[in-house]
Design brief:
The chain has one helix and eleven strands. The strands form two sheets. The chain has an eight-stranded mixed β-sheet. By secondary structure, it is mostly beta strands.
């Protein structure tokens, strides 16, 4: 199955090619880092195998930002330099294996619904738990 996506201005375009939706894991993240990057109460990314992701031939080249994620690990993020939309991210440990695509950039974000929540200990008090998915209070739970 091929899932297409793009940034807000559609300059950066990509495709995800996976055999089935089971190959993807969409998750909410309530860590401080995601809250800041996404500019909201949580981040929403879809984890896919690195080989499943590709920028299309007519895509602009994304801008790359790398920095310590606050725990001593290097976090790599790619975004559109024109509109600022985040496209994907991955940590140093996942670099050779996975990409975490910003779910809202998919043409149909509802096609890959959430399977879990991370850092639930930091979920905003006004936000309810998402029912029917796994919940990790901390990453290593």
């Amino acid at each position: 199955m091929v899932y297409k996506g793009a940034c807000y201005c559609k300059a950066v375009k990509y495709e995800i090619d996976i055999p089935s939706p089971e190959e993807a894991r969409t998750s909410l993240c309530h860590c401080k880092n995601c809250k800041r990057f996404f500019g909201t109460a949580f981040g929403l990314t879809t984890k896919i195998p690195v080989k499943a992701f590709s920028y299309t031939s007519d895509s602009a080249t994304p801008t790359v930002h790398e920095a310590d994620n606050g725990s001593g690990s290097l976090l790599h993020r790619e975004f559109c330099s024109i509109c600022g939309s985040g496209i994907l991210e991955y940590g140093a440990a996942a670099a050779d294996h996975f990409r975490y695509v910003m779910t809202g950039t998919l043409e149909d974000p509802g096609a890959l619904p959430p399977k879990g929540e991370f850092f639930c200990a930091y979920r905003e008090k006004w936000m309810p738990e998402v029912p029917g998915i796994f919940h990790k209070q901390h990453l290593k739970d």
